[in-house]
Amino acid sequence: xxxxRMPKIxxxxxxxxxxxxxxxTKVMILSGYGEFEYAxxxxxxxxxxxxxxxxxxxxxxxxxxxxxxxxxxxxxERQEKENVIFEVENYxxxxxxxxxxxxxxxxxVHLNPSYLSRYFKESTGENLSNYVTRCKMEKAAxxxxxxxxxxxxxxxxxxxxxxxHFAKIFREQYGVSPKDYKRGIRS
Length: 187
Description:
By secondary structure, the chain is mainly alpha-helical. The chain contains nine helices and two strands, in the order αβαβααααααα. A two-stranded parallel sheet has the order 1-2. Strand 1, helix 2 (36-44) and strand 2 form a beta-alpha-beta unit. Helix 4 (102-108) crosses helix 5 (113-124). The longest helix is centred in the middle third of the chain and has 38 residues, at 57-94. The radius of gyration is 26 Å and the shape is elongated. It starts with 10 loop residues before the first helix and ends in a 5-residue tail after the last helix. The mean pLDDT is 92.
């Protein structure tokens, strides 16, 4: 809770500092200055509330309570989102040799498939299908390097039917064919 004008630093300078450092701090300005320019700057710096003095104690407490509810609701949503993403990623890694369709993954976390797809992309910056493919290629690389399995066996084990398609995807991720990778050639 800050004012606009204070002895050593202005409230707006404090807000700018919090904003630029990306501190997880919610700010309320309680000020006697109602100029639009101050409010506009406060909005730019992510201020949660801008209240004009004088303010009644009951009104202040109500606004503060609502601000805290919003803040903690956002934290809870963020935690729930992280839990969903963790559960999906964990399921993929534990079941990498299974069919990992969007519909199946959505059913694991009880979400609509298109919603899960958007949710995953927003949270990780990566498409869910790209993530699955990357994990499958990482598993393929590990199997090529650490087992005596044939490329065809690994390909089928990971759910790929066409060797050309498998080789193309593998080459895109590792810069070499599965055959060269198995021989120890890396790009």
